[in-house]
Amino acid sequence: MGSVTDDEVIRKRLLIDGDGAGDDRRINLLLKTFTKWCNSPGTPDESSFTQYQRMLGTLAQCEFSLGKTLMVYDMNLREMENYGKIYSNIEQNITSAHEKIAECKKEIQRAKRVRKNRQEYDALAKVIQQHPNRHETLKQLEALDKELQQLCNIKENVDAKLELRKKQFHVLLSTIQELQQTLESRNKKLNLIRICR
């Protein structure tokens, strides 16, 4: 088996003894002393009374140790209950934190959407700034409408003159044609007269 070290001995004693107060040894010693005291022959004398007082002292120490152990046990139960409350409180805080994180994520998404909309708005505003404003555009449209009206009037005048010129040209052509026919018929008559002579 190997040599047993002091640490192992102390560890075994602590495991057997509990908190190290020596209660088991004290109880075993009390039992041995009590059986020895009960089995001792003779009349009670001063040594047996001293032994009796020692047993009462040992019993009081054991009761004190038991009371202390019960108080530690009660304290441990209260601590476990307290830890349970703390645990449930932490669980609630974790759940609340998750909810807050989810809400913050939604808020971040909304903020991103607003930022994107603002950027698009700024881009549109820059494009709009490059073009003249509505008042100037309306003035330009009015000027173009006036110019168009003038051009339409000029076109109508030109069309009327052209139509007049066409008619005049047609009259001129018909007159030339009539003159030509007249000249041709005269030339024929003159040629006939020359031939007849």
Provide an overview of this structure.
90% of the residues lie in helices and 0% in strands. With 197 residues, it is mainly alpha-helical. Helix 2 runs antiparallel to helix 3. The model has no long low-confidence stretch (mean pLDDT 85).
Stretches where pLDDT falls below 50 for ≥5 residues?
none
How far the N terminus sits from the C terminus, by CA atoms, comes to 180 Å
| Derived structural class | mainly alpha
The percent range for helix content is over 70%
Layout of helices and strands, plus pairs?
Blueprint: H1 6-17, H2 23-39, H3 46-130, H4 134-196
Give a short summary of the structure.
By secondary structure, this protein is an all-alpha fold.
Summary keywords:
0% strand; 4 helices; mainly alpha
